[in-house]
Amino acid sequence: MIKHILSETTFKKGITVPSLLFILSVTFLASFFPERANAVLALVQDWIFTNLNWAYVWSVTLFVFFLLALVFSKFGSIRLGDNDAEPEYSFFSWLSMLFAAGMGIGLMYFSVSEPISHYSDPTFQDLNQIQRSKNAQLFTFFHWGIHAWAIYGVVGLSLAYFAFRYKLPLSLRSCFYPILKERINGPAGDAIDTFALCSTFFGITTTLGFGVVQLNAGLVEVGFLKSTTFSSQVVIVTIIMAISIFSATTGVSKGVKFLSQLNISGAVLLMLFVLAFGPTAFLLGSLSEGVGEYLNQFLSLTFNTHAYEPESQRWYFRWTILYWAWWISWAPYVGLFIAGISKGRSIREFICAVLVLPTAFNFLWMTVFGNSAIWLDQNQAEGLLSGLSGRADELLFRFLDYFPAPSLSSFLAIFIIFIFFVTSADSGIFVINSIASNNAEKSPKWQLIGWGALLALLALVLLNAGGLQSLQTMTLITALPFAVVMILFCYSLVQALIIDSYYYEREFSPATSNWSGERWKERLQKILSVRSKDYVNRYIMDTVVPALEELTSELNTKGIHAITELKSDPTDIALTIRHKEIEDFVYGVRSQNRPISNILVKERNVPNVKGVERYIPVSYFGDNRPGYNIEYFTKNEIIADVLKQYERFLELTSEVKNEIFTDTGSKRKG
């Protein structure tokens, strides 16, 4: 029975086996030696954050400006799929899913605690109350704004492009295709996907573990549970993962889609409740000011490393750099998920939606909750909320105590947190299985159940042993090498987009411009043949040379001094009309070799393809413009082509504004 089940698996051994070995080994060390492991990893993290923080800053900055450049480039109209591909999901469903998977649970956890933490941090104690309030909003916007989503966007866009445009598997290895070619299917590709699987697994595990603590605290706050115990956490994890597994096994288009829409609807309802019963006018006004300050300080915040402000660097490492590392470490998971639901979108639509819309919602959300908390702390709570800044798991529920019907709003918050966890977990299960199976079209349900059970089990083991902090720290450390991987993604994507544009914008051969279809059988034979060096040399001697010599003779009879020169026998021939005051007119033809794609060499239904290169006769001109292939031109067509170029030359030379290019007499005199 077991043998039969295993025979149906879609797991790729080169990915799954090393991933499981690494995951279990790290879990063992973090569980049995939590203090020692955390101490060592914390030292490594501190060294990286202190000495290489600039690397995080420049990497994230590159991602932001890279995506913005694509939006305004000609590549923005390229679709993530075939040219006629249509989106699989409605805009609302798509936005709900990418948002819920991206950082939904984080918004619940940090919506009150982060602004309050910045507001009450001793680093800014010398500032007045108003400035500390503004800084709290500004820094929160910075950490949850465009920069965070640019990290996800780079990975998601690269994956979606290569998967849906190039028809490659939806896996990180595919993003290296322009660099590695077919080698992505070997050990190098397995290593890349193994890294992605481990990073995704650890990110979800730590989030699940820490999030359960917040859910437990919330249930205690509303009186549903008496205290925070490990047994209650076991029950919470079991319920979450059971629903997540059920959702994952029903597929993205059903379970994940439904829960994401339910989640975002509940979150909006809670936000509107706080906005309506909080200091509404102040919140809307501070939102406007906050957005303006964010835009005004955008470049300063982006490049600032606090090198001249050592007193604030510890805060900077603890918040900004940690956030950049955390978003990068989550990028494989979130990128894979949003790529999988983005087929049919254009690059411009994808980037604008991923960067702008979630950022705008985050700004509204953080303003409503964060600024409400600061306002309450100043006017009603008398500093009590600031005093709880180190207890993020309780702070949201203590904050809701200052609003009408606190039990009802707390239950709604718990429900939203619960659903956010389920959507993160079910999309995580889906992504992990996709990586482990190299994006197999249909995997048996027991694989999804197995990943969900393993996530739950290891989260509880680490939670009980106190090893979650070690796992989180190691995940943050791995973010730096993955930032380098993401930079290579950008390079690969640019190379692919250039080829994409060239492929679809490539015009017909000049030889087809005025072709009537005469002697089509001869033309077909040439099309089906790959020309050798000897063939092209014969073509130049038998067709090109007679054409240029006949035209040269005719020009001389008209009083135009022209010569035909064979520059290197017999691969380079040129007709030249020499001038004194203007540039010479040159029309030449030379033999060039071009490599042949291995795919074409292997294709049996393309006759006469031998070897790995071909030769073609290419024209060239005196002004160094790019030439073109003339291999299909007859003798008379070559003469017509030269006259066309000569007519162009005379037209340009006759225009006064072109004298800077055509006047050579003044250059010689100077």
Automatic annotation (TrEMBL):
Spans traversing the lipid bilayer: 15-34, 54-72, 92-112, 141-164, 191-213, 233-252, 264-285, 321-341, 353-376, 411-436, 448-468, 474-499
Pfam families with a match to the protein in the record: BCCT (PF02028)
Entry's localization field: Cell membrane
Membrane topology of the entry: Multi-pass membrane protein
Keyword Hydrolase: no
Keywords assigned by UniProt, alphabetized: Cell membrane, Membrane, Transmembrane, Transmembrane helix, Transport
Stated family: Belongs to the BCCT transporter (TC 2.A.15) family.
Protein name: BCCT family transporter
